[in-house]
């Protein structure tokens, strides 16, 4: 499966919302094509290099498909789009087009069935509810309610201030319970660092 790739300093998760400002010709063309064809594009996290200009020196080989849900011209004249994360994928190979657009040969990763929330998830559910009240999070209109362990894990991994490297590792974990355990471990580390 061939998928246009958009390297960003961010990690997108399934079911999560991301607002982007588009100004480079290669991405304006890509968004136009995706919207005409009703298709998505792939968000991959930059590991070396920058978001603008040439192809970054390094990016994650695991990413998340982004589907455009809304768009508008911004006050600054740029195109603003809102995307929602769909399927996860792994980049098997990639090439760079003449306009510097990256195109990946990707394989879709199976997303496990939603698992019901357990009693031990209560603290993390409460944390998600607290995050939902933050004005920046509320502005995303993600409808932050966890329908199960999978959506809880995706939303927390996306919203919490973990490093991009940690988020890439979380995106790779298929099992929702394991991802929630990994999130809890990262939270415990953060708390330990704050107390030190």
TrEMBL record:
Domain (Lon N-terminal): residue spans on this chain: 1-191
SMART domains, A to Z: LON
This protein's name: Lon protease
UniProt KW keywords: Hydrolase, Protease
Gene3D superfamilies: LON domain-like
EC nos: 3.4.21.53
Enzyme class (EC, first level): hydrolase
Keyword Nucleus applies: no
GO molecular function annotation: serine-type endopeptidase activity
A Pfam family per the record: LON_substr_bdg
Gene Ontology terms describing biological process: proteolysis
């Amino acid at each position: 499966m061939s998928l246009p790739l958009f390297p960003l300093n961010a990690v997108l998760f399934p079911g999560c919302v991301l607002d982007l400002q588009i100004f480079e010709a290669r991405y304006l063309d890509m968004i136009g094509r995706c919207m005409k064809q009703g298709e998505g594009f792939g968000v991959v996290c930059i590991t070396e290099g920058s978001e603008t200009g040439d192809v970054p020196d390094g990016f994650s080989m695991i990413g998340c498909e982004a589907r455009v849900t809304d768009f508008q011209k911004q006050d600054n004249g740029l195109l603003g789009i809102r995307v929602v994360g769909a399927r996860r994928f792994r980049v098997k190979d990639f090439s760079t087009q003449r306009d510097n657009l990256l195109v990946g040969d990707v394989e879709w990763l199976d997303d496990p069935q939603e698992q019901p929330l357990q009693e031990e998830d209560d603290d993390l559910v409460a944390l998600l509810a607290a995050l939902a009240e933050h004005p920046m999070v509320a502005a995303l209109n993600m409808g932050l309610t966890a329908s199960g362990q999978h959506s809880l894990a995706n939303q927390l991994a996306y919203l919490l201030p973990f490093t991009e490297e940690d988020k890439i590792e979380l995106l790779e974990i298929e099992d929702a319970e394991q991802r929630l355990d990994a999130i809890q471990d990262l939270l415990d580390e953060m708390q330990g660092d704050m107390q030190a």
